[in-house]
Every structure is written in C-alpha cells, then in structure tokens.
Amino acid sequence: MAKVNLSEVGKNLLKSADSGEKVELQSLWQDQPLVVFFLRRFGCQVCRWMAAEISKLEPDLRANGVSLVGVGPEELGLQEFKEGGFFKGCKHNLPHANMTLNMMPSGCEIRSGHIQAEARD
Which residues form the Alkyl hydroperoxide reductase subunit C/ Thiol specific antioxidant domain (predicted)? Predict the structure, then answer.
C-alpha cells in the first residue's frame, strides 16, 4: 500500500466555497479530526448522491468533534450543488493548479449503475 505524506498533501490550497478564502488543507485538521470527502465534480449526479449519503453522518461526526469537508476540483456546478443542499459539511474547491494529490484506490469494487439510477430519482 502506498504511503501518503500528509505534510505534503496538507500544503495544497483550498478555496472556501462560502467565503472565497484560501487555506491550506492541513489547517483544517490542526484543531480537530477531519474527514475529507473528495468529489469528482460538483455537477456529477453520483457525487451529489454520495455527498447526500455522507452528510447523514455529519451530526454524529460533529457530536464527536470531527469535521466533515467536501473538496471538488473546480467551481463548475458548485452553485447548484450548494443550492441543492447535497452536502452538510464545509465545501471547498481545489484549483486545477494544485491537483498534486496522489489519490489511493478505495480497495473495493462497486457497480455504480444502481447508484446512478437512484441519484437521478
């Protein structure tokens, strides 16, 4: 399994979807544990469905002192994503210039056809 250097990953700049402020990713986990949810893009139906599903965990995470942050690669679709209320945590976007993260595979295979159908409903 690949090792992730969190100090290097943490240097990536994120832009807050609410305030426009740019912050280093590592600043979000300095004071408390953090779950980072990476979206393929904000307009993706499956991403929106997954965001809604993970948002169901937000009250329990918050109750246990854990933040939930969603990160997408661009601003395209962000306004609709926010207006649709798909995600209950903090939303950030990671500008293309900073796309240096080494993503690791999830370790499981999921057939997503039924998810796409459910996301459209």
Answer: 17-75
